[in-house]
Amino acid sequence: MAVLTGMGKTHVATLFIGIFIGISVSFMWTYTESSGRLFSFEYLPTSPHSHGENDDLSGPQDSPVWDDSHSHSHSGENKTVANDLYNKVRVLCWIMTSPSNVASKARHVKATWGKRCNILLFMSSRRNGELPAIGLEVEEGRDNLWAKTKAAFKYVYAKHLNDADWFMKADDDTFTVVENLRHFLSDKSPMDPVFYGRRFRPMVKQGFMSGGAGYVLSKEALIRFITKGVDNPEICRMGGGGAEDLEMGRCLEKLDVQAGDSRDELGRERFHPFIPEHHLIPGILPKDMWYWKYSYYPAKQGKDCCSDYAITFHYVPPNMMYVLEYFVYHLRPYGIETAVGSSSNMYVKVEGGPAQSNRSTDRYKRRLALGVSLQKKIQSFGESLGKKAQDMGKVEQSKIVADNMIEKTRLLQ
Fold this sequence. Notes:
Layout lengths: L1 H5 L2 H25 L46 H9 L2 E6 L5 H10 L7 E6 L9 E2 L9 H16 L5 E6 L3 E2 L1 H8 L8 E4 L1 E2 L7 E2 L5 E4 H11 L14 H11 L3 E2 L16 H5 L9 H5 L17 E2 L4 H12 L28 H34 L3 H17 L2
Parallel strand pairs: 1-2, 1-4, 2-3, 6-10
Antiparallel strand pairs: 4-9, 5-11, 6-9, 7-8
Helix pairs in contact: 4-11, 5-8, 12-13
Membrane topology: Single-pass type II membrane protein
Subcellular location: Membrane
GO molecular function, one term: nucleotide binding
């Protein structure tokens, strides 16, 4: 007390401010390093097989629901191609989750991208009737994910083999653009023994697929895995230990299931093991990180990292699920539409005019077809009239008549 008495008021105030700042910084450091991280974006996995790093993060209590299907920005949407692929390329999605993650993570998958799968299943170690989640007879824990994966695929094979053509496994912090997955698979046969995902390099000759980025098995791959591999100790690892994605890769290689190339025509990846920011912004991922050595193909950052038809991103916190949902399915740049290919109903832009909505585009195409048909009929009639006139010795007159009728038809265009 004597020391404080001998100090000026300014020094005392400075002392207490310093103590306060020190305690605050210490608290923030401790909080950031503990389970309650301030930001999820700072996390970088130390292993390609990491799981559960976002388990301490939870999303909104009430999931955002968009009800703007009839608004001006969506009224002209044409989902013909997406709906057609929904029926032709049937995808079953099963999501790896746990009892503790049902409310904090899994339900946000269901509220966003999961509803676009033909069949959506949540695999846990305990049944949940509200989500719902299937209770597999396996022990919970990160060290038992291989056992859960085998049990999940057994369930899918027994209950849903004929309900889908492709069978996708994803985590409850994976975001998937299912329409892009169907587009990628649309020219591939589910009866070929193949699986796709983000291809990693070590320990398996043909590579294996990142578990977090999600991977998809063809029907033939699933059949071989269940009937010839999963219970055969010479092909697949027994028990629950081991990294789930690596063990799946080893097992499928021995079953002659090909590890497919999922990159686009520019060599950009479709399946991504991190959030978009980590791929798009150069320098976030350390140069000595395992990621660079594990990538089967040379990994890229920046504008060349990701396909325009990207399929998945991993380590997506619950809140970001809704951000991506908004950016992918609701944000619209005014005046721009996208062509979907020559084999489908392509967007048509009138030369020199504004972009046509789907309805006006359809009317334009119908009028164009009608005009062409009318032109052909009048041209045929004119040629017939010309032949008759020629027989009557009136060649010049008939040519004039026919040319005039053809010219009038062109003006109708």
